Amino acid sequence: MTSELPTVRWGIVATGLISSWFAADIIRDRANKQANHIIQAVGSSSLDKGKTFVEKHIPGTSPTVYGSYEEVYADPNVDVVYIGTPHAFHKKNCLDAIAHGKNVLCEKAFTLNAVEAREVFAAAKEKGFCYGSHVDPNIASLPADSRLRNPSLGASTLLDIGIYSLTWGLVTLDNGVGETAEKPKVSAQQHLLDGVDAATSILLLYPGRKQGILTCSSFIRGGQEFCRIEGSKGMIIVQGGAASCPESFTVNINGQEPRKYNFDKPGFGFYFEADAVAADVAAKREENSTMPWAETIRVLELLDEARRQGGGIFPQEENIEGKGPGI
Fold first, then answer.
1. What's the average model confidence in pLDDT over 292-296?
2. Whole-number CA gyration radius for the chain
3. Measured distance CA(278)–CA(34) in Å, rounded
4. DSSP state letters, 38-97
5. For domain 1-135+269-291, is the CATH number 3.40.50.720?
6. Which helix H or strand E contains 211, and what residues bound it?
7. In terms of Cα–Cα distance, which of 138, 171, 185 is closest to 157?
8. Do 178 and 298 meet the contact criterion of CB atoms below 8 Å apart?
9. pLDDT at 139
10. In terms of C-beta distances under 8 Å and separation of at least 24 residues, what long-range contacts does 60-64 make, across chains too?
11. Pairing state of beta strands 259-262 and 7-13?
């Protein structure tokens, strides 16, 4: 019964595109509902932007709208803060929310690098509770202050969309997560445009015969078939409008007719992570078993290594000894 499901009151920080998808998804009516989600508060850089966000993306709701993020953190009626700001601000936003005693769900990429992620998790551990994380236009056509072009804002095609390629590679090649996962060797190249990685190619080399070839690019838009898993007995092709939003997969076993499997998934799928947060908060778990803190750090370490080899370093990292990401 719906009344027996856990209930979470959300505070949404930032009113950009990713926050609009998340907010609309968690209040969506769906058959597989695992929690009751209430948008309690919305924080934006101005009251007008916040009110427009509510009217446009989540009409029919009545959250408290604030003209700052700080007011969301301080709202006693907010259980969990969802952070949808640009990458460069994730660490500060997480730390600010944690300092106010809030649980946190931060959008990918969790932070700019593994060093920042460890700082956030250390603060969460000290506080006693917190929750861990989750097609670009041509960069050259964007204004210099765009979050997708300005390195100071964490502009990175790898962190923005390449993380999906890495996720599919890890999901299909790894047998564990976090501390139980394998540690592949990374070989990477990047195409830099004004210091921003506009395209990245990564080769993951595992012991034995397994390898992953991962790519991302802001220069072209990929097709419906975005993931190919090849093995000695055949292959599986995953299809969908985006790598973050799969809609079907086709199994091709050698010598047999291909079989396609479709699955119903309303919206963008953000409610899955929201449901997981609700269940963990209700059970007083500090982190999720499917995506533990150690896995978030591992993924960021792999991204750090790809950027170290490719040269995509953020200004915030230039003063770090060795001038390499994640050091």
1. 96
2. 20
3. 8
4. EEEEEE-SSHHHHHHHHHHHSTT--PEEESSSHHHHH-TT-SEEEE-S-GGGHHHHHHHH
5. yes
6. strand 211-217
7. 138
8. yes
9. 72
10. 61/27, 63/12, 63/39, 64/40
11. unpaired
Where is 92: in which H helix or E strand? helix 90-99
Question: Model confidence over 173-219: pLDDT tens digits?
Answer: 998 999 999 889 999 999 999 899 999 999 999 988 899 999 999 98
* Cα separation, 69 vs 13, whole angstroms: 6
Q: Return the biggest CA–CA distance within the chain.
A: 61
β-pairing, 259-262 vs 196-205, is: unpaired
Q: Which two tokens stand for residue 79?
A: 């259980």
Percent of the chain's residues with pLDDT above 70: 92
Which is nearest to 85 in space by CA: 145, 12, 30, 156? Answer: 12
User: What token pair was written down for 68?
Assistant: 């700052």
Tokens of 67: 């003209």
Is the preceding peptide bond at 109 cis, omega within 30 degrees of 0?
yes
What's the CA gap between 35 and 271, in Å, rounded?
9
DSSP of 225-287: EEEEEEETTEEEEEEEEETTEEEEEEEEETTS--EEEE----TTSTHHHHHHHHHHHHTT-SS
Question: Tens of pLDDT along 49-97?
Answer: 999 999 999 999 999 999 999 999 999 999 999 999 999 999 999 999 9
Q: How many angstroms separate the CA atoms of 58 and 24, rounded?
A: 6
* Residues facing 104 on adjacent strands: 81
Quote the pLDDT of residue 133.
53
The domain limits of the chain are 1-135+269-291
Distance in Å from the first CA to the final CA of the chain: 49
Residue listed under structure tokens 């250390």 = 122
Q: How far apart are CA 187 and CA 76, in angstroms?
A: 47
SS3 of 293, please? helix
For the entire predicted model, the pTM comes to 0.86
Pairing of the two strands 225-231 and 234-242: antiparallel
Q: Which three-class secondary structure state does DSSP give residue 299?
A: helix
